[in-house]
Structures are given as structure tokens and as C-alpha cells.
Write a structure and sequence with these properties.
The complex is a heterodimer of chains A (771) and B (158). Chain A has 771 residues and is of the alpha+beta class. Chain A contains 22 helices and 31 strands. In chain A, α5 (96-108) packs parallel to α6 (137-164), α17 (537-554) runs parallel beside α22 (716-733) and α21 (648-667) crosses α22 (716-733). Classes of the chains: A alpha+beta (771), B alpha+beta (158). Chains A and B meet through α8, α10 and α21 of A and α1, β4, α2, α3 and α4 of B.
């Protein structure tokens, strides 16, 4: 009979999992993806009314969604002593191939450089389990990957015990070598084949305790850095596929415009290098020997275009639509003497364009198709491409290539779908790439939104905080929708749309502000939208933190101490204290300069950001050709607690990038809509952070492990830094900013490129600008 | 079709292609040299930055007919050979600082950095904070800070 204490899970039992040894010629092990979610979740206990995301957030949903449908992920130990693993996720710069290799190296006791992590092709049997998004990769794969690696090590130890004739418990494994007490040793290379199994076996393995970690939690350089700095890293357009010649699309002058007729198809097809011209659903496709000749052909095409879906739209008309759709805030009866702060913020369209523009290689045959592209939802891509081509899903292979950035863009597979259509229309393989100008004008955008925030306070307490976020609809058609459909019954929020569900699962108010509500309303129209790094959070958090500064001022408190007093979670307090201390919060600042501080909770983690901004005329008016200089963030201090940082160096990199994004969307980056199209068409029109906007001082502090399990990292810093920069700007100028980026309504800093022809010719003065 | 000869990463090459095709496409689409990347085709993002006779050039803006038979075109693939090492000190600094994230812009960043250091050196100077305003290369992952650190650490090592 067992006692209650025996039934309580012990530390060891919490680390015991089932792994699989698969029948193969060399040691091959597996684990079920999704087991990481099996551990019980602590319910949050907070005063006031908890919001849904306090109890169950997007990552819980993404992880839980994998439970029922999980399938096996496999590690192979090769006869040369290296281990191979095909990660069913997309690497787009966030460093997951490195952190995954670290997990394997840890449990397998193998040097990091002997672990090879590649990207898996689309695997339909994984269902929901092959989506890269929501900063969920490490959260959902942390346990399964380690279980597979631990299974491999256990099998190697058993093989070594038999070979050396000593008990398994007497052996030790280190750096890919198993050693007996008498000094005899066998390398993993010598054991890989001997440890292979003739049949599939299920085995029980125990993971290392955190106290034994030698790799996890140590700063490691990226496993793909050498390839990146030598030019050997292969992106989709670098993959050599026989016969796949360059292809481009001549696109309409306005969003969703259509081809009515092409006047000179034969003449364009006869241009130097051009092999094919074909009308497709998004425009007129050309294929040629070089992309340069494709550009010439696109520019030469004479096309009669039908109207687009947004031809009359401007920033002002969309803003008016949003205002009309905004839901009112109904505040319950409050005590006499209650005061209120009420403000509305506008966040303009922004581009999630990566430096690698939309692109894909497609080789479509009569009865099969092969695609090469960086896609974060490859199963959805495979299904949709099969549907478009009229092929069975199994006849379409989607190879996931290394991605040149994503920022949400690669959740969609627009170029892969287009490449498949073009390849089919021409009957030839193509290497399809979007011109940069198209990528800004016809690529997906972060939707325009407005956020109204009303807070009430009395006698030193905040009584209510209501936020009404009204946005052009964000498309989630990349497969996240399927997860929600399957999971929605489990959620503590019922009757919401997909977007509302995502919103309520990601947005939290980290403060004890009494009755808090945060609601999303969407205006649906024809814009091509998508999640941009951190989805709603940068805008929602920025609006809320600006109101927090206003509350602090109204209640006569310092912004840091005010936040500290009202924060719900001690982990939030710890990161806030850390940036205040390292960033010397409250130091005397010159006129026109100021500090700003903000906090953001998400992905089971917390980030605090302190910035210093310089809004003095000498800085704001700095002249750099074809640039927006403006206010300069001169210093950024960031403290991050993700529970457990698998690779602190990689986490620092993600914080650094997130801060640059936060600076961009606050100060310089937006798209201007006019006449049915976005005006921006180049990186000197769309002002993402450049060297001249980069803070000269940057300090990122990774907090020691708190929860012992990793949270999400890839997007966490964007919201915190956007809010901190906005707060600093408000404090430096004495005027709370309400339009973002702050320069959006200023006279444009560029002359828009023409829309006909849709793309500009490359200059010819390269040599004269040599330096 | 016109024929064009130049020296690419130490080897003489001859390509038959129309005069106005930009060098970037000659390298990538015809010769299969994919280190230089496309990011705009407008000389703005600088992802294609390579060297012509040791100076940084946006090769998306160079018609192949502008390149003479004796011109030395060096891409990231040919950079190490300039010092007879496996890696150029700038590449090594990039590794030491773990600069790359997605890596797409990094060949262009490194080629630009090497040329800037050499340009400053020719003027008897070293690069400092103010000089970084001259670097126009986009890094959409936002690795700018580590790029600065890598350049500062490498500039005295070659």
C-alpha cells in the first residue's frame, strides 16, 4: 500500500519519460513531440480579476495542441560518432538549430560540434506539430528532444556494458566516449552500429537533473555562424535545382489589382534571356536566364490592369473605419472623487519584410511537385500547394530551407504557392523571387490599429483599466487556426473569433489595476496582413505603458517605483529592479533627454527595458543622406527572465534584435497608404533601424534560471522596448506620443517610386560609388 | 552575345552575356557564386557588397560591361585568400562576437567592414563610433551592435 508521500511525484519521477529505440542499421532513437506539456501547470494566483492570458496563454495552447496528435521525432547516431536530427521547425535566424543541438549534446554527452541539426521537410503526420511561431519552439521541444537524446545515450551505455563486460552502472559517458573503471573506453562511433536495434523498443529513460547540466545554460556560439560568414549558408535562392531558372512577377499598380490583358507578350518573350511569359493569378510571370533580365522583362510588359480591392484607401480612410468600429468603454459606477485618464493611440501599417524577399524554388511535374522554401507552416503550404495544383498531398514535397529572416513573414508561403503556379503554367522548374519593391508594396503587412485606454484611480489605487484595441484584421490562415479549432473547447474564453482568441491568450496586464479588460475588434478588408514579430503586443503594451506613466505622474509617483508597487509577479519585479539598477534609473539627465522604463510579460517570461533617448535638435536634425535620423536612443538596458535560458548568448541576440525592432516601430518605420498602394518601395523609404539609429550603449542581462523550464525568446523584447522608447520620448519632450511611429505624419522623407512599371531598374553607377 | 572576362576570386573567368546585365546576376545566376545576396537591386541595402580591385562595390549596380579583363572581383568566398588564411580576421571577429542571426546580410556586412577599415587606414585613421553612421548595410535581424564590436576588435588585426 502506498502512502501519500510516495504518490507525490519525486524529482526523479518528474524526469522519467518514455523513449523509443527504432529498428535501424545504426542506433536510431525517438521520442514523442508534445510530452513536454505533460507536467502539471501551476495556476496563477493573483489579486484582482485575472485575465485569460494570466492563467492559460498562447504557448500553453500551442503546446497542448501537440499532445493528442504528437508523432515521433528521431535522432540518428551515425557510424562516425556524430548525431543527426531533422528539426520540424524553421530556422530563420532565431537560433533554434543551435539551442536544439545543445539539448542533444547535453543529454547525449556529445560535443556540440558533433551534433548536426537540419530542417525537416513538411511532415503531414505531425499535424499541428510543425508550426514555427509564437516563440514556442523551445517551449514545446525542450523535453521531447532531450528524451530522444537520453534514450540514445542509454542504448550506447548498454552496448558498451555488453562489449566491455562490465555493469552499466560502472560506466561513464563524456564527450562522446564511454569509459570503464579500468580505463578501457569505446567511442560512440564504435558503438553506433552495435547499439542499433532489430526491433522497435519502448524504453524508460531519466533525464539529467539541472544540477548536472554542462551545456544547457552556457553561452554558445551559433552552429551555423561559420557558414554565414563564409557565404556558404544556403538560402532558398542559393539552392541549385536543375533547370530552375529565375522568375519574377509583373504586379498590378494597386493592391489586389488583376490582369485584364497583356499587349506585348510575344515581344517580351523574345527579349534577351527570357524563356517564358505567362499570366498567373497575381500578375504576369516571366522566366529568364538571370534575374536582371527578368527585371527588364517585367518593366517592358504592357499590361492593362483591373482595379484593386483598396484603390480608394488611404491612411485616413482606414483610420476612420477603425474609429467607427471601436467599441465603447463602459466603466462600472465608481466612488466619488475617482479620476480618469483616457487616451487613444494610432499605430500605422508596418512591414514585416525580411531582407530575403519572398522566394521559392518549384519544380512541378504532371504527377508530382517539389518545393524549396523557408516556410514556418510547411504542412499548410504542402496542402495548399497540392490543392492549387490539383495533386494529392503526398505528391507534393516541401523542403524547408534556411530562412533569411522572418519576423512573421514566413508564417505564410505566398512565394511558394506562386512559384508552384508559375512552374505549372510554364511546364518548367522556376526560381521565383519577389523584387524588393513588390515585397514592400504587395507583401504582407502588420495591420494598422488604434488602442484606446482608460484607467481610473482614487486614493492611491488604480480601480480599473480598460483597453479597446481596434485593428485591421490580422490573417492567421497559416494553420494556427486549425490549432484553435481543436483547442477552443479547452479555453477559459468561449465564443471568440480566432483573432480574438489569439489576442486574449497573448495580452496581459502585468499590474494589479483592479478590474482590467482588454478587447480586440477587427475591421476586415482586402489587405494582405500577417503577424509581425510579437503580433499585437508591441502596440497594446506601448499604449498601456504610456498610460502607466500618466497614472504615475497623476498620482505623484516615480515611473519605476509606481510600476514596482503595482506589479503582480515577483519575476517582473526582479527584471524591473535589474534594469533600474544597471541603467542607473533616475540619474540627472540634460534637457531634451530622458529615460524611459517598461515591462512586458509573455511566453512564460518577463522582460524589462530601460532606455535613454536624446531629442535635442542637434541630434534630431543630424543629416545623413536618404535617412531618417530623428530622436536617438543612446542607451538601452534590458533584463530578461525566460525561466531557463538554454543558450544565454542566443537569448541576448534575440533581445538585441527585438530592441532594434522596438526602436524602429516607435520612431521611424511605417508604411504610408495612398491611392490603393503603399508608397514605400525600398529600404531607403521604409526606415528600419540602421547603424545611425542604433544605441551606442547596449546592455542585456540574462537573469539566472527561475522556473527551470525555458520560455519563449524570439519576440519578447519588441513590446518592452517599444514601450520604453515611447515612454522615454514622452518624458524627454513633455508630450505623450499618440501616433506611431512618431514621424509618420511628417512630410515624407523620400520620393515614392512609380507603380508603372511596378519595379525600378537597377542603377548602373556602382563602380563610381566604390569605397 | 558579348563576351566578358574578369578575375573572380583569383581565377580568370569569361562569360557570354548581354552588356547591361548587372554583375550580381552574372555571379549568382550564371557562375553560381551565391555569397553576394539580393536585398533590393537598388544599391540601398548593400547585401551584395563585394570588392572590385579591393574597394567595396554594390555589384547589383554594375553592368558587367563595366568590368575590365584585369579587374579583380572578390566576393565573400574569395575574401580569406587576401591574407592566405582560412578566415579573414574580420570573419574571425564575426565568429568571436557571434554576430550572425539569419546570416543573409552578413557577407555584405563583412565585405563593407573590411573596405571601411582599409579606407580609414589609408587616411591614417581607425574607425570609431561616429564612423558607423557611414555603414548603410541593412541588418533586418538588428545585429548592429555586435557588428560594431566585431569591427572594433578586428580593425587592428589585418
Amino acid at each position: 500500500m502506498s502512502t501519500a508521500s510516495e504518490q507525490r511525484p519525486t524529482d526523479v519521477s518528474r524526469r522519467r519519460f518514455l523513449g523509443y529505440v527504432l529498428a535501424a542499421s545504426t542506433l536510431t532513437v525517438a521520442a514523442q513531440l508534445g510530452e513536454g506539456a505533460a507536467a502539471p501547470r501551476a495556476e496563477a494566483a493573483v489579486p484582482g480579476v485575472p485575465e485569460p492570458a494570466d492563467l492559460y496563454d498562447l504557448n500553453d495552447m500551442l503546446t497542448d495542441a501537440t499532445l493528442a496528435t504528437a508523432n515521433l521525432i528521431t535522432i540518428t547516431l551515425n557510424p562516425d560518432g556524430t548525431a543527426s536530427f531533422a528539426l520540424p521547425r524553421a530556422e530563420v535566424g532565431q537560433g533554434i538549430t543551435t539551442s536544439t543541438a545543445m539539448l542533444i549534446a547535453e543529454e547525449l554527452d556529445l560535443p556540440l560540434d558533433k551534433v548536426q541539426v537540419s530542417l525537416a521537410d513538411a511532415r503531414p503526420e505531425l499535424l499541428f506539430n510543425q508550426l514555427t511561431g509564437g516563440s514556442n519552439t523551445t517551449i514545446s521541444t525542450y523535453t521531447p528532444v532531450r528524451v530522444a537524446a537520453a534514450t540514445a545515450k542509454q542504448q550506447l551505455l548498454e552496448a558498451a556494458a555488453a562489449e566491455l563486460g562490465v555493469p552499466l552502472s560502472a560506466l561513464s559517458a563524456l564527450q562522446g566516449v564511454i569509459t570503464a573503471p579500468d580505463g578501457r573506453s569505446l567511442s560512440y562511433a564504435e558503438l553506433a552500429v552495435k547499439a542499433a536495434s532489430l526491433t522497435n523498443l519502448q524504453v524508460s529513460v531519466t533525464l539529467k537533473p539541472a544540477s548536472a547540466f554542462r551545456v544547457i545554460g552556457t553561452p554558445q556560439n551559433r552552429v551555423d555562424a561559420l557558414d554565414a560568414v563564409t557565404g556558404r549558408k544556403q538560402f532558398a535562392m542559393d539552392v541549385q535545382v536543375a533547370g530552375a531558372m529565375p522568375a519574377m512577377i509583373c504586379r498590378p499598380p494597386t493592391i489586389n489589382g488583376t490582369v485584364v490583358s497583356v499587349q506585348n507578350q510575344a515581344a517580351v518573350q523574345a527579349m534577351p534571356g527570357i524563356t517564358d511569359v505567362a499570366v498567373v493569378s497575381t500578375g504576369v510571370a516571366v522566366r529568364g536566364r538571370t534575374f536582371g533580365q527578368c527585371i527588364d522583362a517585367v518593366r517592358a510588359l504592357q499590361v492593362t490592369w483591373g482595379p484593386g480591392s483598396e484603390d480608394a484607401a488611404t491612411d485616413a480612410t482606414v483610420l476612420a473605419e477603425l474609429r467607427a468600429a471601436e467599441n465603447p468603454i463602459v466603466t462600472p459606477p465608481l466612488p466619488l472623487l475617482t479620476k480618469a485618464i483616457d487616451a487613444r493611440f494610432t499605430f500605422h501599417f508596418a512591414s514585416n519584410s525580411a531582407l530575403e524577399s519572398n522566394c521559392a524554388v518549384a519544380d512541378v511535374r504532371a504527377d508530382s511537385a517539389e518545393i524549396w522554401a523557408s516556410v514556418k507552416a510547411p504542412i499548410t503550404a504542402q496542402e495548399e500547394i497540392a490543392g492549387r495544383l490539383g495533386l494529392p498531398v503526398g505528391a507534393v514535397t516541401v523542403h524547408v530551407t534556411q530562412g533569411g529572416g522572418s519576423f512573421g513573414r514566413k508564417l505564410f508561403h505566398d512565394a511558394a504557392l506562386e512559384a508552384a503556379e508559375v512552374s505549372k503554367a510554364m511546364g518548367k522548374p522556376v526560381r521565383l523571387m519577389w523584387h524588393r519593391t513588390d515585397d514592400f508594396r504587395h507583401g504582407r503587412v502588420h495591420p494598422m490599429s488604434i488602442s484606446r485606454v482608460r484607467a481610473t484611480y482614487s486614493l492611491g489605487q488604480v480601480l480599473t483599466l480598460d483597453q479597446r484595441h481596434t485593428s485591421v484584421a490580422t490573417e492567421f490562415g497559416h494553420g494556427l487556426g486549425e490549432i484553435i479549432t481543436s483547442s477552443v473547447a479547452k479555453l477559459p474564453v468561449g465564443g471568440l473569433t480566432f483573432s480574438e482568441t489569439i489576442f486574449s491568450l497573448t495580452q496581459q496586464t502585468p499590474y494589479n489595476f483592479g478590474v482590467t479588460t482588454q478587447l480586440l475588434t477587427e475591421v476586415d478588408n482586402g489587405f494582405h496582413t500577417g503577424s509581425m514579430r510579437n503580433i499585437y503586443s508591441p502596440n497594446v503594451r506601448c499604449a498601456q505603458e504610456l498610460i502607466v506613466d500618466q497614472l504615475a505622474a497623476a498620482m505623484g509617483q516615480d515611473p519605476y517605483h509606481f510600476r514596482r508597487n503595482f506589479l503582480k509577479d515577483q519575476r517582473a519585479v526582479a527584471v524591473l529592479d535589474k534594469v533600474a539598477q544597471v541603467g542607473d534609473w533616475g540619474r540627472t539627465m540634460a534637457p531634451g533627454t530622458a529615460q524611459g522604463i517598461a515591462i512586458h510579460p509573455e511566453y512564460h517570461g518577463f522582460v524589462a527595458v530601460l532606455v535613454e533617448i536624446d531629442c535635442t535638435p542637434a541630434t534630431v536634425n543630424r543629416k545623413i543622406p536618404d535617412a531618417v535620423t530623428g530622436p536617438r536612443v543612446t542607451k538601452a538596458v534590458c533584463a530578461v527572465d525566460v525561466g531557463l535560458a538554454v543558450n544565454p548568448k542566443g537569448l541576448e541576440a534575440q533581445m538585441m534584435g527585438g530592441i532594434m525592432d522596438g526602436i524602429a516601430v516607435t520612431l521611424t518605420s511605417s508604411l504610408h497608404l495612398d491611392g490603393g498602394h503603399f508608397q514605400e518601395g525600398s529600404w531607403d523609404n521604409y526606415f528600419y533601424t540602421r547603424q545611425w539609429n542604433t544605441p551606442p550603449e547596449l546592455d542585456i542581462i540574462v537573469m539566472p534560471p527561475t522556473t527551470g523550464t525555458p520560455g519563449g525568446a524570439g519576440e519578447l523584447a519588441v513590446a518592452g522596448s517599444m514601450a520604453a522608447v515611447a515612454c522615454a520620448y514622452g518624458r524627454a519632450t513633455g508630450i505623450m506620443p499618440t501616433t506611431f511611429p512618431i514621424n509618420h505624419d511628417a512630410p515624407p522623407a523620400f520620393t515614392p517610386l512609380p507603380t508603372v512599371p511596378p519595379i525600378p531598374q537597377s542603377p548602373t553607377d556602382g563602380l563610381s560609388r566604390a569605397y | 552575345m558579348p563576351s566578358h572576362t574578369f578575375v573572380l576570386n583569383g581565377q580568370q573567368v569569361t562569360v557570354d552575356v548581354e552588356d547591361d546585365v548587372r554583375l550580381l546576376w552574372v555571379l549568382r545566376d550564371i557562375l553560381g557564386v551565391t555569397g553576394p545576396k539580393y536585398g533590393c537591386g537598388l544599391g540601398v541595402c548593400q547585401a551584395c557588397t563585394s570588392h572590385v580591385n579591393g574597394r567595396a562595390v554594390n555589384i547589383c549596380c554594375v553592368p558587367v560591361s563595366d568590368v575590365q579583363p584585369t579587374d579583380e572581383v572578390t566576393t565573400i568566398e574569395g575574401l580569406p585568400a587576401t591574407v592566405g588564411q582560412e578566415l579573414h580576421p574580420m570573419q574571425q571577429a564575426w565568429l568571436d562576437m557571434d554576430v550572425p542571426q539569419c546570416g543573409y546580410c552578413q557577407p555584405g556586412q563583412i565585405m563593407a567592414a573590411v573596405a571601411m577599415v582599409l579606407q580609414a587606414r589609408a587616411a591614417g585613421q581607425q574607425l570609431g563610433d561616429a564612423d558607423f553612421d557611414q555603414i548603410r548595410n541593412i541588418c533586418r535581424c538588428g545585429t548592429y551592435h555586435r557588428i560594431r564590436e566585431a569591427i572594433l576588435s578586428a580593425q587592428t588585426k589585418f
